[in-house]
Amino acid sequence: MVTIHRAHGLRIIIFTDDHEPAHVHVFGDGQAKVNLIGTDGAPVLVWAEGMKANDLRRAMQIVRDEQAQFLARWREIHG
């Protein structure tokens, strides 16, 4: 697993042995999985467990803001 971003008590990671579609996992007080490209091109929440609504909103904003960088990291790691 590779930590690609830390902010606001959240850690965003990519697992090196993970599968398509390109996505990140967010850990804080709980966890979430976010696909980096949804049907409209924007990131989309796949699931969340135990995250406060405010943390989840913050996580989604980070992924939206850093989408291009996170996709580049996904491609570096997974080819």
Automatic annotation (TrEMBL):
One Pfam entry for this protein is: DUF4160
InterPro entries on file:
DUF4160
On the tree of life, the source organism's domain of life is Bacteria
State what protein this is by name.
DUF4160 domain-containing protein
